[in-house]
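quick one before i forget lol
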Amino acid sequence: MAYEYTIVREVEWHHTDMAGIAHFSNFFHYMEAAEHGFFRSLGLSIHTTDPEPLGWPRVHAECDFRYPLQFEDSVEVRLLVREKRPKSLVYTFIFRKLNGDAPREVARGTLAVACVKRDSATGKLTAVPIPLAIADKIEVAPPEAFGK
């Protein structure tokens, strides 16, 4: 069972604003990339159709910023499973700038996702229990994993 996953991204020019600082919206892209990588690391996909179509829409997203990232900075994005509920998952993301004098935490984010199925006739989304084939591979991170 797993509760964490880490990716590293470089801040590219198109990720920045006119001051050369990473635009806040990119932190949400980085969170999503880490979540997809986490699922792939478990042999899963965030989008499934077999045995039934499942999705993971976002029901809450936030990010608190401490220090800016700039063009060509290297950022580590660490996903930690904070909560595992019957029909949803809540992740914490810890962003650390890796280049410079020493690694430094620059932001923390939260993403809550619901497990849903889509009715093929109406298109309506309905929250459903996380299938055991998925839930059995995911655990909640211990409190000490979150640091401060």
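fyi The CA atoms of residues 82 and 142 lie 8 Å apart.
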